Amino acid sequence: MEAVQHIYRQLRSTDAPDDETARGIIDKLFFSDKRYDLGEVGRYKVNRKLGFPLTITKKVLTKDDIIAIIKYLVRLTNAKAEIDDIDHLSNRRVRTVGEQLYAQFGVGLARMARTIRERMNVRDNEVFTPIDLINARTLSSVINSFFGTSQLSQFLDQTNPLSEITHNVVSQRSGPAV
After folding, report:
1. In the chain, what are the helix, strand and coil shares in percent, each to the nearest 5?
2. Domains within the chain, CATH numbers bracketed
């Protein structure tokens, strides 16, 4: 329980009211698929690094993962394991547009859920319809900002047909976000 209290103190900068609250916060933060998701690639890399079977069953951290990570860190300090080169291309991964859009969509849905909860709390005993609570502008603004400000997006130069063709040629030659 001492370790749980210490982790809670590191996360919240205050002491936990009781042991059950501390354990619940830690479980919700690291072991809940709603708050923490390694993804298939992340789970594969963790399993490969820690020597677990490469089957992907759970996409959240498990207690076995934490124990194996601590053992690996101990081996690192004793110089019995090698540090990964973060610049090596095998340790890099390109996130697809779909993955990035999925993450932004999750952010938009979380904001929408928070807005709905706030509206329900403001009006205590009223009868609600979904139209009263749900505002799609929250979600659409997140998606629009993704397409407007993402490094994968750029505005097409439409001054004249030649500038449009030049823009397309330069974009194709040099890759995204020139």
Report:
1. 60, 0, 40
2. 2-77 (3.90.1110.10), 97-174 (no CATH)
